[in-house]
Every structure is written in structure tokens, then in C-alpha cells.
Amino acid sequence: MFSFDSLLVIGYIHKVESAVTTPDTIDLSSRVRSELQESERVPVDYTSLFDPTLFKFDLMNIPPMLNLFRQMSLPHQILALVPPEFEVPLPSAKFAVFPPQ
């Protein structure tokens, strides 16, 4: 059987001194303040808001990369599919019944 002191040591019972006071929510709810800000005007041409330099699909880097393959004497091959190897975490199943005697 546990004593009261052992429960305090384990941490199941908190001391009264560790109580945390909460703010007076009733008083705070009567003094609600909004934090809305004025927003900027949206331009008529909304496409001016997009920045095309953030993402760019470009094929200009492929020829220099192919030249690197030639300079490093590496064969340029299409990537092959690597078949997955699944690990079996459990031993093989065995029946849980006994044969007749």
C-alpha cells in the first residue's frame, strides 16, 4: 500500500503550492478588443500579385548535365526500377492445435 508521502514523491498528487492561478476570464470578456487591421487594396489586375520567379520549370540544365556524364566517363542510362525487399518481422505461422493422439 502506498503512503501519502510516496504518492507525493511519485508525482501522482500535486502540492497545493504548485497550483496555478488563472486570469479573471469574466472580467476580461467584458473588455474585448478587436485587433483588425486595414488591408491593402487589391489591384484590378490580380495577376500582378503572382511572382513567376518563385517557380520555374526549365529544361536548360539538361544539356550541361549530359556533358558532365561524358566528362566523368559515366554511362547515361535510364533509371531502372529497384524491386522492394520486404522484411518479415514475425516468424512463420504455426498452427495452435495439437494433432490427435
Automatic annotation (TrEMBL):
One of its GO terms (cellular component) is cilium. GO terms for biological process: cilium assembly; intraciliary transport. InterPro entries: IFT52, IFT52_central. Residues 28-101 form the IFT52 central domain. This is IFT52 central domain-containing protein. The lineage of its organism: Eukaryota, Metamonada, Preaxostyla, Oxymonadida, Streblomastigidae.
